[in-house]
Write a structure and sequence with these properties.
Subunit structure: Monomer.
Number of helices: 11
CATH class of the largest domain: Alpha Beta
Function: Tetrapolymerization of the monopyrrole PBG into the hydroxymethylbilane pre-uroporphyrinogen in several discrete steps.
Helix content: 25-40%
Strand content: 25-35%
Shape: globular
CATH superfamily of the largest domain: Periplasmic binding protein-like II
Number of strands: 14
CATH architecture of the largest domain: 3-Layer(aba) Sandwich
Number of domains: 3
GO molecular function, one term: hydroxymethylbilane synthase activity
Distance between the termini: 47 Å
Pfam family, one: Porphobil_deamC
Radius of gyration: 19 Å
Structural class: alpha/beta
CATH topology of the largest domain: D-Maltodextrin-Binding Protein, domain 2
Order of helices and strands: EHEHHHEEEHEHEHEHEEEHHEEEH
Bound molecules: ligand PBG
Cofactor: dipyrromethane
């Protein structure tokens, strides 16, 4: 990197969670590069603008490629040179990027479980027969109805704090499903009482061995223009390698299944020494209510793509 006045512009969405994740990124960058000015630019995405319809509708209505609804405008800002580095929740990033972009780094991952948040404490076991749970994720819908066929599901939109408020105020549904990572990063206790302006709600973890997370859940990804070696070097300097190994494996598995965010797929990984253990679950698509397919494989953590393919092959 040259010696002229150095400046790096970090682009982020404006949601409370996105801002926390941007702050984490900027903090690490400032520590590693005290001589570089780290600047933030907040960008509104299609997904932030269209909170009136379901997420799958947003992609269709707005003509945004698959699940890029939370990233498209950040990528445009990268291309226009308005920002040098885009910070994303990795879960929201499509498994296949346009050729112009590259995910070059990830921050240390937060816990990956899903959390059931309800109006009464007690978690899943305390939810009455026939209760309704709101979620916009097909994976969460399918997994929930597989564990509890009596439950009904409905759609919900909005950022994490908004969803908690909607739950506290709702007459229509009794619970929502959220990522432990997002709640934790926003300062909520995912295993206890959470206060909102509309009242208190209660979180309970769902064991991730029963309820597999989305690929990349809890990870923060840093994206640059392909070929922008300077920005890539900044990002790579703060990369958490064990997280990178895991998310490469998880995203490869999802890519092989050709899944976007609307594919009912769960995947989890665990590193121990030189090995990586992967668990996968795939639900039949559409309105079918068949049994899911599940598999577990263990392999060389140095070859995450190979292990992901083994998991994929064992589910075919
Ligand atoms: N599109 C929603 C989204 N994207 C990332 C997170 C949470 C943080 C994460 O899982 O990385 C959430 C909300 C949720 O699932 O509760």
């Amino acid at each position: 990197m040259s010696n002229e006045a150095k400046r790096l512009v970090v682009g982020t969405r404006g949601s409370a969670l996105a801002l926390v994740q941007a702050e984490m990124t900027e903090g690490l960058l400032r520590e590693a590069f005290p001589d570089t000015e780290i600047v933030r630019k907040v960008i509104k995405t299609t997904g932030d603008r269209r909170t009136d319809v379901s997420l799958s509708e947003v992609a269709k209505v707005e003509g945004v490629f698959d699940k890029g609804v939370f990233i498209k405008e950040l990528e445009t800002a990268l291309i226009d040179g308005e920002i040098d580095l885009a910070v994303h929740s990795l879960k929201d990033v499509p498994t296949v990027l346009e050729d112009t972009f590259e995910i070059v780094s990830v921050l240390e991952r937060a816990p990956v479980a899903d959390v059931l948040v309800t109006k009464q404490p007690g978690g899943l076991d305390a939810l009455p027969q026939g209760a309704t749970v709101a979620t916009s994720s097909v994976r969460r819908q399918k997994m929930l109805q597989w564990l509890r066929p009596d439950l009904k599901v409905c759609d919900i939109r909005g950022n994490v704090p908004t969803r908690l408020e909607k739950l506290a105020a709702s007459e229509e549904f009794d619970g929502i499903l959220l990522a432990q990572a997002g709640l934790k990063r926003l300062g909520y206790d995912p295993e206890g009482k959470m206060s909102t302006d509309e009242g208190d709600v209660y979180g309970a973890l769902i064991a991730p061995d029963k309820f597999l997370p989305a690929a990349g859940q809890g990870a923060v990804a840093l994206e640059v223009r392909k070929g922008d070696e300077s920005s890539a070097a900044y990002a790579k300097a703060i990369c958490h390698e064990p997280t990178m190994t895991r998310i490469v494996a998880e995203r490869e598995f999802l890519r092989l299944l050709d899944g976007g965010c609307h594919t009912p797929v769960g995947v989890s990984t665990e590193l121990s020494g030189d090995t990586i253990k992967m668990n996968g679950i795939v639900f039949p698509e559409g309105d079918e209510t068949g049994e899911p397919k599940m598999a577990e494989v263990t392999g060389d953590a140095g070859a995450p793509l190979v292990v992901a393919r083994e998991l994929f092959d064992s589910l075919k």
